[in-house]
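Ticket opened by: R.M.
Priority: normal
Category: complex prediction / small molecule

The reporter submitted a protein together with NAX and asked that the result be attached to this ticket for the collaborator who will pick it up next week. Submitted input follows.
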Amino acid sequence: AKAPLNVAITGAAGQIGYSLLFRIANGDMLGKDQPVNLHLLEIPDEKAQNALKGVMMELDDCAFPLLNSMSAHGDAMTAFKDIDYAVLVGARPRGPGMERKDLLQANAKIFTAQGKALNAVAKRTVKTLVVGNPANTNAYIAMKSAPDLPAKNFTAMLRLDHNRALSQLAAKANIAVADIEKLVVWGNHSPTMYPDYRFANVAGKSIKEMINDEEWNKTVFLPTVGKRGGAIIEARGLSSAASAANAAIDHIHDWHLGTNGKWVTMGIPSDGSYGIPEGIIYGVPVTCENGEYQMIQGLEIDAYSRERMDFTLNELLEEKAGVQDLL
Ligand code: NAX
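Result attached by the on-call engineer:
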């Protein structure tokens, strides 16, 4: 049998946590033959820690064969000890009357502390996925706070946007989601992102040509994918949780086990290509193999795409400027 991997999840008693933990313990993320030790982090607050205990009781009650052990933590320095994977979900939500700048700063404090803890106690090979918003900038902050760890191992979640775009395209072109290749979502996990199906195809057949409707792209597809999070809040009264957990599972699953040549979207530190300044955590197409992602290089960027890619980049640069004093 394989040795267990240590996986830390923050915000473990939250909404996304409630959908995420059970699937990780079931082997959906790291493989059906891979035992896990779950390190669950919540704020030290008694209510949150009690809620976490309740979730752990339910995990016990599932008797998952792959769940080797679990532990509850109120401090990142113990939660992140020797971990192989970190899924950083917990973040400060926007409170009533809170300015964007305040939200950025509150989260910058959390992700500075968590980056430092990763730097101090996690395995040197730890791979990190940031889900908590603003996800790209939080990942940037954690990366900058962990100078002894490889920068490439800090990523942000664009996979929910990618999956949302897949499902909209499949419905429009009457094709199966599983058959869609080469979809891209560029930029920030925010309504400014740019889902781009110019390269997408089904068995080599161009989806852009199949749909052949630029008007639909600009007036339906882009806003539907971009504002999907808001539409779900409006309908459900709560933000996306099961679909967000599912996207986190997909992201780490593919990073760990590979994509067999399929393109997926990950927010990764830029290497400077496509005009994205080095280090900015930006959604790009990648393939994964042997536990490493490889960015797809050399795609043609037309004028409209350039404009959209710069728009979402500028938002990231503004977010970065808003937290620069803390780094
Ligand atoms: P919840 O408020 O239900 O849960 C968050 C949990 O995190 C709470 O239990 C809280 O106590 C805990 N927490 C807060 N600060 C913490 C810290 N410093 N250390 C450990 N735990 C901490 O939110 P939920 O719906 O689960 O969403 C979590 C985050 O995901 C939010 O920031 C949300 O905006 C973000 N999302 C990101 C998505 C993405 O695609 N990247 C999509 C879904 C989601 O909106």
